[in-house]
Amino acid sequence: MTDEMLLKEAKKARECSYSPYSNFQVGAALLTKGGKVYLGCNIENASYTPTNCAERTAFFKAICDGEREFTKIAVVGGKKGEDAKQICTPCGVCRQVMMEFCNPETFQIVLSDGNDGCQSYLLKELLPMGFGPNDLK
Ligand code: THU
C-alpha cells in the first residue's frame, strides 16, 4: 500500500467526520503490518472535551479488533466543505497514543501536503524522546 493510496483512504474517512463545533473535518487511515486498513474520523461532542481525533478513532478501532502491529497512518484535514488544502499534523495526545503501539524508529506518519502530494515523517521526528512502554520496563 503506497502513501498515496493510504491518503486516499484517509480522504474517504474524512467524509464521515462528525465535527459540528469546529467544522474542521479530519480523516485517518491506519495500516496494520498484516495489510489491513482501519479508517477513523474526528468525533466531536457538545461538551467539547470528549472529542476524539481521527487518528485515535482509527487506532482504537484496530486495537479493539485485536490488532497490535502497525506500519503507517495517513492523515488529512481541513475546513468543512473544502478540500483539505493544508497539512494536518497529529495532536500531542494522538502522538502519545501512537507511541504506545508503534515503534518510533519505523512507524510513518503520512500527511497530505495540501495539493496532490504527501509528506512522510517518522514518529520519532514528531515525538522526539517520547515516553513509551519500554520506559516502564
Ligand atoms: N483533529 C483531529 O481529528 N486530528 C488532528 O490531527 C488534529 C485535530 C480534530 C479534533 C477536532 O475535532 C478538530 O480537529 C479541531 O481541532
From TrEMBL:
This enzyme scavenges exogenous and endogenous cytidine and 2'-deoxycytidine for UMP synthesis. Zn(2+) binds at residues 53, 91, 94. PROSITE patterns: CYT_DCMP_DEAMINASES_2. Its EC number is 3.5.4.5. It comes from the Bacteria. SUPFAM superfamilies: Cytidine deaminase-like. Pfam families: dCMP_cyt_deam_1. NCBIfam families: cyt_deam_tetra (TIGR01354), PRK05578.1 (NF004064). Residues 1-134 form the CMP/dCMP-type deaminase domain. The active site is at 55 (proton donor). The keyword Cell membrane does not apply. It catalyses: cytidine + H2O + H(+) = uridine + NH4(+); 2'-deoxycytidine + H2O + H(+) = 2'-deoxyuridine + NH4(+). This is Cytidine deaminase. Keywords: Hydrolase, Metal-binding, Zinc. GO terms for cellular component: cytosol. Belongs to the cytidine and deoxycytidylate deaminase family. One of its GO terms (molecular function) is zinc ion binding. Its cofactor is Zn(2+). The keyword Glycoprotein does not apply. It comes from Filifactor alocis (strain ATCC 35896 / CCUG 47790 / D40 B5). Substrate binds at residues 42-48. One of its GO terms (biological process) is pyrimidine-containing compound metabolic process.
